[in-house]
Amino acid sequence: MTTHLLYLHGFRSSPQSFKALRLQSWLATHRPDVTWWCPQLPPSPRAAFELVEQGTAAWPAAGAAVVGSSLGGFYATALAHRRGWRCAVVNPAVDPARDLAAHIGELTAYHDPAERFFFRPEFIDELRALAVPAPADPARTLALVAKGDEVLDWREMSVRYAGASLRLVEGSDHALSDFDAHLPALLGFLGLLPSPDASTATTP
Question: What are the structural domains of the chain?
Answer without folding.
Answer: 4-189 (3.40.50.1820)
